[in-house]
C-alpha cells in the first residue's frame, strides 16, 4: 500500500471517528446552493455489462466513476477494507434515490464537469486514468484548481463526495453501505449489542465481543430502491 494511500485512509478514519460517523449519518455539508439551471436527467434505463452496474439512481458510467473516485478516497489494502469492500457506491446510489434526492442535479452536474476536465487534461475519462492521475484530479478538485467546474464548485463536489464516502463506510449497514460491518470493524466499533454485561459497562478496555448488530436486526424495516431519472 502506497504511503499516500495509507495517509488518506488514516485521515478519513480519524475524521469519521471524531465526527461520530461510526454511529449514523447526517454529515451532509450545509452550504449546497441549488443550481438555477436544471441539467437534463441522467438516463438510468440503459443496461451495460461490466464490473459496476447501474443502480437506483446512477447510470453505468456515473456508477463506475463514483466507484473509482470513492476507492481513491478510501483505498483498500490487505486486511483493510476500502470503499469498494464496504459498498460505498451502493450507499450513495440509494441515498440519491431517496433521502438525498435534492442532490441529484448536484451529482449529475459535478460528474459531467469532472468528465469534461479529465478528457480535456488527460484525453480519457476518470475511470480510465491510472491511480496516480486519479489522485492528481482529486487533489486539484480539493484545491479548487479545476476550471471546468462552475456549479457545483470543484471544492464543493470533492467535499460532498468525501463526506458521503465517510457515511457509506461508517453508517449503519441498513443505509446500504458498511457492508459486513467493514467500516465498524476498521475502527473497532462494536455496533449495537444484544446485551451489555455489568463487566462490559465497567471495563475501560476496547469492546470487541461479537456479534455486531445493525439497525436492520431491530425491526422489519427494509430499503426498497426507487428509480429516479
List the helices and strands and how they pair.
Elements: H1 3-19, H2 60-73, H3 83-86, H4 88-96, H5 104-122, H6 131-142, H7 154-170, H8 182-186, H9 198-202
Helix pairs in contact: 4-7, 6-7
Description:
- There is one protein chain.
- This protein is an all-alpha fold and 229 residues long.
- It has one domain.
- The protein is 45% helix and 0% strand.
- The protein contains nine helices and no strands.
- The protein has helices at residues 3-19, 60-73, 83-86, 88-96, 104-122, 131-142, 154-170, 182-186, 198-202.
- Helix 4 (88-96) packs across helix 7 (154-170) and helix 6 crosses helix 7 (154-170).
- The radius of gyration is 18 Å and the shape is elongated.
- Residues 17-50 and 219-229 have low confidence and may be disordered.
Label this structure with key terms:
about 230 residues; mainly alpha; 9 helices; elongated; disordered C terminus
Share of helical residues:
40-55%
Q: Uncertain regions: pLDDT < 50 for 5+ in a row? A: 17-50, 219-229
Helical region count? Answer: 9
Q: Which structural class is indicated by helix and strand composition? A: mainly alpha
- Could you give a short account of the major beta sheet? none
Beta strand count: 0
Distance, first to last CA: 38 Å
Domain module tally: 1
| Integer average pLDDT | 78
Query: Hey, roughly how much beta strand do the residues contain?
Result: under 5%
Q: What is the N-to-C succession of helices and strands?
A: HHHHHHHHH
Question: From the structure provided, what is the oligomeric state, counting identical versus distinct chains?
Answer: single chain
Amino acid at each position: 500500500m502506497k504511503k499516500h494511500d495509507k495517509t488518506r485512509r488514516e485521515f478519513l478514519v480519524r475524521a469519521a471517528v471524531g465526527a461520530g460517523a461510526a454511529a449514523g449519518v447526517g454529515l451532509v455539508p450545509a452550504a449546497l446552493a441549488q443550481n438555477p439551471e436544471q441539467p437534463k436527467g441522467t438516463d438510468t434505463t440503459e443496461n451495460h455489462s461490466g464490473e459496476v452496474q447501474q443502480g437506483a439512481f446512477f447510470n453505468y458510467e456515473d456508477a463506475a466513476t463514483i466507484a473509482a473516485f470513492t476507492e481513491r478516497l478510501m483505498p483498500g489494502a490487505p486486511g483493510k477494507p476500502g470503499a469498494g469492500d464496504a459498498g460505498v457506491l451502493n450507499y450513495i446510489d440509494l441515498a440519491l434515490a431517496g433521502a438525498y434526492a435534492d442532490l441529484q442535479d448536484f451529482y449529475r452536474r459535478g460528474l459531467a464537469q469532472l468528465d469534461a476536465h479529465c478528457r480535456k487534461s488527460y484525453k480519457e475519462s476518470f475511470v480510465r486514468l491510472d491511480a496516480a492521475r486519479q489522485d492528481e484530479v482529486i487533489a486539484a478538485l480539493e484545491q479548487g484548481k479545476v476550471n471546468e467546474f462552475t456549479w457545483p464548485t470543484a471544492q464543493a463536489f470533492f467535499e460532498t463526495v468525501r463526506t458521503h464516502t465517510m457515511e457509506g463506510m461508517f453508517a449503519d449497514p441498513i443505509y446500504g453501505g458498511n457492508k459486513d460491518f467493514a467500516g465498524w470493524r476498521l475502527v473497532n466499533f462494536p455496533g449495537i449489542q444484544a446485551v451489555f454485561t455489568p463487566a462490559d459497562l465497567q471495563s475501560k478496555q476496547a469492546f470487541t465481543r461479537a456479534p455486531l448488530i445493525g439497525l436492520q436486526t431491530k425491526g422489519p424495516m427494509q430499503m426498497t430502491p426507487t428509480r429516479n431519472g
